[in-house]
Design brief:
By secondary structure, this protein is mostly helical. It has helices spanning 25-36, 41-48, 52-60, 67-77, 81-85, 99-108, 112-129. Helix 1 (25-36) packs across helix 3 and helix 2 packs across helix 3 (52-60). The protein starts with 24 loop residues before the first helix and ends with a helix.
Length: 130
């Protein structure tokens, strides 16, 4: 029977979305977060206590993932649920840089050896203050 559908974009054995088709927005964000964490679908499935096919489903077809799943996978991948769901991030309007922030930015522009010298001085001051 599988010979008849050999060239069909869906394989009857797995009935999944063909890899050439774009996944859902949620699924693409989930797959990216999973890959950034260095996990395969199998490894993520093991950590979640689900099958690899379920992870594949969420990455490629799920349009409305459950809140429970989103919270669990977000915590496991160390990302926010908002990131997985594509919620717009709030932009915080900042005021002018403080004098300390200006100094830190100046230090970032120095050569590494000078940065290390400054770090050693700061570390010594912090250690003596403790």
């Amino acid at each position: 029977m599988s010979v008849i559908f050999q060239n069909h974009p869906y394989n009857l054995a797995i009935m999944a979305r063909p890899t050439s088709k774009r996944g859902t927005d949620f699924g693409e964000r989930l797959a990216e977060a999973r890959k950034s964490s260095g996990l395969t679908q199998h490894q993520l499935a093991d950590k979640l206590g689900v099958s690899q096919q379920m992870v594949d489903y969420y990455e490629r077809r799920a349009r409305n993932p459950s809140a429970v799943f989103v919270r669990r996978v977000a915590a496991l991948l160390d990302v926010s649920a908002d990131t997985l769901l594509g919620a717009p991030t709030a932009r915080v309007k900042r005021g002018p840089l403080s004098e300390w922030e200006k100094r830190v930015n100046s230090i970032k522009g120095l050569p590494r050896d000078k940065q290390r010298e400054i770090q050693n001085v700061v570390d010594a001051l912090l250690a003596s203050a403790a």
